[in-house]
Amino acid sequence: MAQSVAPATTAPAITPISLKAIAPWAAFFGILMLVLLYFVGAEQGATSLIAGENVHEWVHDGRHLLGFPCH
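Above: the chain sequence. Below: its structure as tokens.
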């Protein structure tokens, strides 16, 4: 009388994700990272898009952390 209390379970099937499904998300996050890199690394310089010092103050510590000079 060896019966198990819990029913036997099978491992869930792993379905591969196609490149067509990943490509839009990869492009979105890639563009987002480039925009963030621009604001941290180059904004308030010769290619400034936003006037004033507000962006510089918001990303100042991040610039130093990533090695971008700003002074």
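The chain has a mean pLDDT of 81.
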